[in-house]
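queue> pop job 88
queue> type: inverse folding (structure -> sequence)
queue> payload:
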């Protein structure tokens, strides 16, 4: 949804937009090319993503001075803003889920289609890996996380099968165990049968849902008037969190002036509020060209100024 994302930031004020999930940098570069008045602060916990960003900056002089990157989880955004003495941002982008390079490199252990080690760490410095989750979590823990993180209705069967098949050492071995645990009729629809369980384990390894709410709130609070926070989600767990945080932020901001934490202290009768835009989905053309885009959903919240009546 790169066109929709670029369009989303067309009207934001001059300043810094945070790309909280930098990855290959496609979104960041497109925003910079479209809007000369914007700069990008890119965050990513993956060493490969940071190395890629540094190559982009070295090879393209137009990015120098306009693109800054830091290797951190996105829930450390407030610390990075403080480090760089940035008080307010023009907006933020969160493209959640796993990036294409992570999926396509078998050694990273994210893919159920290619044989690799049970890794799935977005930050290679982290201690917890998929191997630990698959081989050491007890059956009830596995069942819970598979159900909670992926809405997998066969979570109990899959967890039981994983425990029975231990030790499991590769992604393809794990995928085979999962497929065998799911009833044959259910395997015929909904894509690869192991997709949801791999997603659930990846989310657990990287604590993705645990850090999302805090990161979103930091970004919303830091956004200046007229700025926007956009989030691309790919499954129901992420979407529920984003929808709740956006709704809560809009409701909190619309409370009385004295109760709202978004009051302009220097402007009597004016306060900050938020407006949640309806979600967008990839075009049918994009879904045809990119199967990974089919589950994407984009939500945007915009911070505005409103007059408070007497």
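queue> result:
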């Amino acid at each position: 949804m790169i066109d929709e994302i670029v369009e989303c930031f067309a009207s934001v004020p001059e300043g810094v937009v945070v790309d909280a999930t930098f990855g290959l940098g496609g979104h960041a570069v497109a925003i910079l090319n479209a809007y000369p008045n914007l700069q990008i602060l890119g965050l990513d916990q993956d060493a490969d993503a940071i190395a890629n960003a540094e190559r982009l900056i070295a090879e393209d002089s137009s990015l120098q001075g306009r693109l800054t990157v830091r290797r951190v989880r996105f829930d450390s955004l407030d610390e990075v803003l403080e480090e760089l003495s940035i008080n307010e941002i023009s907006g933020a982008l969160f493209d959640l889920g796993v990036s294409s390079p992570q999926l396509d490199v078998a050694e990273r252990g994210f893919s159920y289609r290619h044989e690799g080690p049970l890794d799935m760490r977005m930050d290679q410095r982290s201690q917890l890996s998929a191997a630990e989750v698959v081989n050491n979590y007890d059956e009830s823990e596995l069942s819970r996380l598979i159900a909670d993180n992926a809405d997998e209705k066969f979570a109990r069967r899959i967890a039981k099968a994983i425990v029975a098949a231990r030790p499991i050492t590769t992604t393809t071995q794990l995928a085979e165990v999962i497929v065998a645990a799911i009833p044959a009729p259910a395997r015929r629809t909904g894509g690869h049968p192991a997709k949801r369980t791999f997603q659930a384990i990846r989310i657990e390894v990287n604590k993705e849902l645990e850090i999302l709410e805090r990161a979103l709130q930091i970004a919303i609070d830091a956004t200046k008037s007229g700025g926007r926070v956009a989030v691309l989600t790919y499954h129901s767990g992420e979407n529920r969190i984003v929808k709740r945080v956006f709704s809560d932020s809009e409701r909190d901001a619309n409370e009385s002036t004295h109760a709202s934490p978004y009051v302009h202290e220097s402007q009597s009768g004016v306060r900050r509020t938020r407006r949640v835009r309806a979600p967008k989905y990839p075009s049918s053309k994009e879904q045809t060209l990119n199967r990974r885009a089919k589950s994407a959903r984009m939500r945007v919240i915009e911070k505005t100024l409103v007059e408070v009546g007497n």
